[in-house]
Amino acid sequence: MDILKSEILRKRQLVEDRNLLVENKKYFKRSELAKKEEEAYFERCGYKTLG
User: Fold this and answer.
1) Is there a contact between 27 and 14 (Cβ–Cβ < 8 Å)?
2) What is the pLDDT of residues 15-35, one digit of tens each?
């Protein structure tokens, strides 16, 4: 059970770090998460994003 709780906490922290949650909203779009992950990937690889 501790493993499950730690995984949930890790994912919640990941979402908060990427600023996906707005103050009034409880949920976020999966597409926004994918876009942020893609931008982070391109940044790590040295590509410049257009946006």
Assistant:
1) no
2) 888 887 777 777 888 898 899
